[in-house]
Amino acid sequence: MSVLVNKDSKIIVQGFTGSEGTFHASQMIEYGTNVVGGVTPGKGGTSHLDRPVFNTVKDAVERAGADTTIIFVPPAFAADAIMEAADAGIKVIIAITEGIPVADMIKANAYVKERNARLIGPNCPGVITPGEAKVGIMPGFVFKKGTVGIVSKSGTLTYEAADQVVKQGLGITTAIGIGGDPIIGTTTKEAVELLMNDPETECIVMIGEIGGQLEADAAHWIKADGNRKPVVGFIAGVTAPAGRTMGHAGAIVGGSDDTAEAKKQIMRECGIHVVDSPAEIGKKVKEVIG
């Protein structure tokens, strides 16, 4: 099995004919992802990358049966694109766009939840189920199919963790890049829960960073859930100074509980196998799987 996306997902690209949408859609298609078309207002009825272009998401749902979307729309319009997808009945919405205004995201996030859709991101690398569907900007060749799930705020650390897991002779069920903005659609805990309930996932890699409570919330849930599967954790930002945004807009130490060391302590107390360097992720996964 897998979570969120698989070979049967019918995927559209919002911002299909723009430079980013074109580049990444072509990579997704080359990977074998079932891209059924794209959306660019005003270009409906044309063709792009040998796929139909629609004026609206609703058209794409009605005519191509789309159920999943990936969004490459500029920040000023991205929240509207998210809400349009939810309104059209899309159930998995993956927003790659970085820098969407927080006020816009508060509105869009609530809108998505009201319609029982799942938003991944924004400011994320996307989701990949190796060998089935790459709905994002990650390098597909790094990922091989297996039994390890990945949840990460960081795009590059998602790829790093996957590469290490594969080099240990293991592989990935689904990797979820949840995004590094202050307001995101799916939390660390929610993504971990999806993988915890996936029968094919035997171990989960949880990669977080300074700022916020997402990792602590996930750790407490994992413990309360009975530590059903081993979880390997890493927190980026050990040397980050307090009060300064580091890379991601959500990565800012606001208090003592936001630091990397504080998060790692909570995770260890909750039974998570915490590593102090990303270079140790693969070996630790191999160790805990046995």
UniProtKB/TrEMBL annotation:
EC number(s) on file: 6.2.1.5
Gene Ontology molecular function: any one: nucleotide binding
Q: A Gene Ontology biological process annotation? A: tricarboxylic acid cycle
Cross-referenced SMART domains, in alphabetical order? CoA_binding
**Residue span(s) of domain CoA-binding:** 4-100
Outline what the protein does: Succinyl-CoA synthetase functions in the citric acid cycle (TCA), coupling the hydrolysis of succinyl-CoA to the synthesis of either ATP or GTP and thus represents the only step of substrate-level phosphorylation in the TCA. The alpha subunit of the enzyme binds the substrates coenzyme A and phosphate, while succinate binding and nucleotide specificity is provided by the beta subunit.
Q: How does it assemble?
A: Heterotetramer of two alpha and two beta subunits.
This protein is called what? Succinate--CoA ligase [ADP-forming] subunit alpha
Q: Which organism is it from?
A: Flavobacterium frigoris (strain PS1)
